[in-house]
Specification:
The chain has about 210 residues and is of the alpha/beta class. The chain has one domain: Rossmann fold. Helices cover about 35% and strands about 15% of the residues. The chain has 8 helices and 5 strands, in the order βααβαβααβααβα. The chain has a 5-stranded parallel sheet, with helices on both faces. Helix 2 packs parallel to helix 8 and helix 3 packs parallel to helix 4.
């Protein structure tokens, strides 16, 4: 029986390459994006729904990019647009580190907790016939490059997230993966992943899924 993986996240799930200059839109091809790499490694009996939106936060409208960046609204829409699904991955929190949100690490984790509450709710679990959830903590950011101005102070905050995400995943009884144990952002912009890092993360996600 075919199973479906839904990958929910931001630009690093969408496949945005490291930014050299603001403005132009680019996206890695399916041979490089970590969700497609993971699906291929999982085998032919899996299908994939990619739900990566650049700029998406765990729970907050963005004053520049728009109200639709609220991940909690987006997750409800995704779970009602697709299905049935068998596994949901959530990798968000990087955009919550932007200075203009003024969030602490605990505040970011509160947004993630809201996402897990949606995913684990009876409403969506029953709708999809039950599905597993994997929480992925994004790697720590580096404050340098063309978008470093919006991430002022983010590096220290991001380093506190893995332990908090791990504890939250254990509390909710969902799978956990620390992406920072496998990859790091490209130093050229401090946030996005290279194609090689996408492939490494995709393999790591597939390996973690294999033992769920």
């Amino acid at each position: 029986m075919t199973k479906t993986l839904l990958t929910f996240g931001d630009s690093n799930t969408h496949g945005t390459p490291p930014i050299v200059a603001r403005g132009p839109y680019f996206r890695f091809g399916p041979d490089s994006r970590w969700p497609t790499v993971a699906r291929a490694a999982m085998g032919a009996d899996w299908t994939l729904v990619e739900e990566g939106l650049p700029g998406r936060t765990t729970a907050h409208p963005d004053p520049v990019m728009g109200a639709h960046m609220n991940g909690q609204t987006g997750l409800a829409m995704a779970l009602e647009s697709h299905g049935p699904i068998d596994l949901l991955t959530i990798m968000l929190g990087t955009n919550d580190l932007k200075t203009h949100f003024g969030l602490t690490p605990d505040g970011i984790v509160a947004g993630v907790a809201g996402l897990l509450a949606i995913a684990k709710s009876d409403l969506y679990q029953i709708r999809h016939g039950g599905f597993d959830v994997m929480l992925i903590c994004p790697p720590a950011v580096i404050e340098q490059g063309p978008i470093s101005d919006v991430f002022f102070g983010a590096a220290a905050k991001s380093q506190a997230l893995p332990a908090l995400y791990r504890a939250l995943a254990a509390h909710w009884g969902v799978a956990f993966l620390d992406a920072g144990a496998h990859i790091a952002p490209c130093p050229s912009d401090g946030v996005h992943f290279t194609a090689d890092s996408h492939r490494a993360l995709g393999q790591a996600v597939a390996a973690r899924m294999a033992v769920l």
